[in-house]
Design a protein that fits this description.
Layout lengths: L2 E5 L5 E5 L6 H7 L18 E4 L1 H4 L7 H7 L9 E3 L13 E3 L10
């Protein structure tokens, strides 16, 4: 099974099982990682904002216009920011590393 690593707000690294076909948000919730996901993955908020490790960012599918619109509302936006609900685990992403931002802003979730 693929694995991925969450870097929590305090810098703690948590490597977890990352079942194929689940989103980063779903994987986080499955393992008790502190990502809110207020809109439950319906692209109506930015509370599942994660910062993708630069080595992995180029391997991801490009964000949709809807995702980019929601990212514009995210707190602590970074160059490699994405929404966890839009990142779906595949074999190619085995080893993915994402960092939780300093905080979230729930705008419309």
């Amino acid at each position: 099974m693929p694995r991925m690593t969450f870097i929590e707000r305090d810098g703690t690294r948590r490597e977890v099982d990352a079942p194929l076909g689940l989103s980063v948000l779903e994987i986080a919730h499955k393992h008790g990682v502190d990502i809110e996901g207020a809109c439950e993955g319906s692209l109506a908020c930015s509370t599942c904002h994660v910062v993708v490790d630069g080595a992995w960012f180029g391997k991801l599918a490009k964000p949709t216009e809807d995702e980019e619109d929601m990212l514009d509302l995210a707190f602590d936006l970074q160059e490699t920011s994405r929404l966890g609900c839009q990142l779906i685990m595949t074999d190619a992403l085995d080893g993915l590393v994402v960092k939780l931002p300093a905080g979230t802003r729930n705008a419309g979730g």
